[in-house]
Amino acid sequence: MISQEQLNALYDAEVVDQGGERVGAMGQVYLDNKTGEPAWVTVRTGWIGSRKVFVPLSTAEIVDEQIRVPYSTAMIKAAPDIPCDRHLSEDEEQDLFEYYSVDDGPAPSA
User: Fold this and answer.
1) Angstrom distance (rounded) from CA 6 to CA 11
2) Is the dihedral of CA 22, 75, 39, 17 positive or negative?
3) How far is residue 96 from each of residues 6, 63, 64, 81, 101, measured CA to CA in Å?
4) How far apart are CA 63 and CA 70, in angstroms?
5) 61-63 and 108-109: which strand pairing?
6) Would you give per-residue pLDDT tens digits along the chain (110 residues)?
7) What CATH number should be reported for the domain whose range is 4-102?
8) Buried (b) or exposed (e) across 51-69, using 16+ Cβ within 10 A?
9) For residues 25, 39, 51 and 64, what is the CA-based torsion angle, rounded to 10 degrees?
10) Residue spans per domain, the chain
């Protein structure tokens, strides 16, 4: 699991897909309410980073100062549109769990 300290050192890092292709720049980190550990990260995609999408950190790793996630760029860019300016609702979180096939866990917070 990627720690908050590691993410702090990678401020504005590139997020890359399973093949090492650039997806976009890391945005906000959402923490698990119970553990305080990073659970989700937003990724700025699209023209000049105008769209932000959530990506789970549970299976991400740091490779060459980039955050590598085990999903394709196309899958990440097609993720559900969920506002990134507040806590995730339980329904939104469930949609993300289902979309990324991630086991249910505690709700993250911004």
Assistant:
1) 9
2) negative
3) 24, 24, 27, 10, 8
4) 12
5) unpaired
6) 787 778 777 777 899 999 999 999 998 888 877 788 888 999 998 776 678 999 999 889 998 889 999 999 999 999 999 988 888 888 898 899 899 998 755 444 44
7) 3.90.50.10
8) bbbbbbbbebeeeeebbbb
9) 20
10) 4-102
Beta bridge partners of 42: 54
CB 67 within 8 A of CB 78: no
- DSSP letter string, 67-89: EE-SS-HHHHHTS----SSSPPP
Cβ proximity of 11 and 66 under 8 Å: no
Report how far residue 105's alpha carbon sits from residue 59's, in angstroms, rounded to the nearest whole number: 14
Q: Which two tokens stand for residue 57?
A: 């950190």
